[in-house]
Amino acid sequence: MGGTVLALSQETRELLRNRTAFFSGISSAEGAGSLAVLGKDAEARIERSVASTGEVAIDLIFPVDDNANPADGRIYVQDRFVFDASEQTFKKYERSFSYNGKGSATWQDWLKKLQGAAKPGADESREFGLAVARSHSRPLSAEDPKILQVFQSQKAYLTKAGDLARVQNSDWKLISGDVQNHYHLVSTGGRIELNTYLALRRGSDAKTTILLHEKFTLDASGKSLQKHERIWEAASGSDAAALQGTLQKLNQQSLPGNRGRVQVLGKRKIGAG
Question: What are the distances in angstroms from CA 205 to CA 18, 133, 199, 201?
Fold first, then answer.
């Protein structure tokens, strides 16, 4: 551990809900009793680290416990997925366990049993890594200058998107440096899904912030667009109730053309792995 700590995104949580079988070896381990992987626990997280070789390691870390209290003892499962520097090629998978040193001596016995539990196979690990581990939130900011440049090159497209909001109120503006601007990348089922989020705000009032959420579904090469969805959402910290009427009207509007933008994004960041 020790990398950049990332909260579990909405996309990651949804992917996890549909892939609970990946942790079946833990829940079915002989003698593990009522221990379960707590994906919704406050200690559940993702950590991303980069080695000197350029390889990227994504660690999914979850508590394994029979209750929500870590003070009476807890085990953690750490699933590590290693990719090349672009995070497009899956290289290896490792699973390890650790104990927080609290509670009774029974936890040491449980730790040994879990360490001997069945682990996912190679194909299952690769699919899970590409679909779930890579879905972590990535900033659309100077922290990722190349992807930021891609979005900046699509000013005409972004202007049209902003115009849709300004039909409702001329004060809406795209906030290029907002901390809520981010994207998620998922490769699953022979397709690639790219979710992007861009913030718009009326003046400096954070409670008016809305997110332009676009979901692009592409083929495995990342170059052929299969489906495009757009959802206007209330941003974290905004007044969702006050924005409900505006969001409803925005979600009823038609989509502008997008193929040029998707192709540019595909050349930069989308890969089948």
Answer: 37, 34, 12, 7
* Token pair listed for 203: 């003046």
Q: Taking the domains of the chain in order of start, what are their residue ranges?
A: 4-135, 138-268
Q: What is the pLDDT along the chain (273 residues), one digit of tens a residue?
A: 457 888 787 778 888 998 999 999 998 887 777 899 999 999 999 999 999 999 999 999 999 999 999 999 999 999 999 999 878 789 999 999 999 999 999 999 999 999 999 999 999 999 999 889 988 887 776 556 566 666 666 777 778 778 888 888 888 888 877 888 888 877 777 788 888 888 999 988 999 999 999 888 888 777 788 888 889 999 988 999 999 999 999 998 866 555 455 444 544 444 444
- Burial group, residue 261, by CB count within 10 angstroms (0-12, 13-18, 19+): buried
Question: Is 0.85 topped by the overall pTM?
Answer: no
212 vs 178: CA distance, rounded Å: 12
